[in-house]
Fold this protein.
Amino acid sequence: MEHRRADRKPTGGVKKTAKDTLSLPHIAEPISSGSITIGLVRPVGRVAVANDEANCLAMLKRRNGETLAQLLVRLDLAVGKAFTDDIFADEINPPAQEEYSYSHKRGVSTKKNGDTISSRR
C-alpha cells in the first residue's frame, strides 16, 4: 500500500541569511545523549520536548505567533535552567493540585479521592 502526503500549502519556512545563526548551547547535550522532539502532539498541539538519558528536562508548548527559532531559543534556555538550577519546565501537564471539600463535621475535610483528613488529634 502506498502512502502519500496530502497536498498542503506551505505554512512558512526558515529563511536564513549569512548573519542569522542561532546559538543553542544547552540543547547539544540532550541531542547527543537523549532526545529533542519538536512537532505536533495531539491533543496538546505543537510542542518542543528535551530529554536526557534519565529526565525530561523541558516540555514547552508553542505559543501563538511564536516562530520555530523563538521556540528553540526558549527550549535551549529551559534546558539550561534544568542543568544549572534543577528547574524543569512543563507547559504541557497541568500542575497537580489536591482538591478538598469541607464536611459539615467540625475539623474534617475530605480529599476528592475520598480520603478523610482530620485536623483533630
Q: What stands out?
A: The helical segments are 28-33, 68-85.
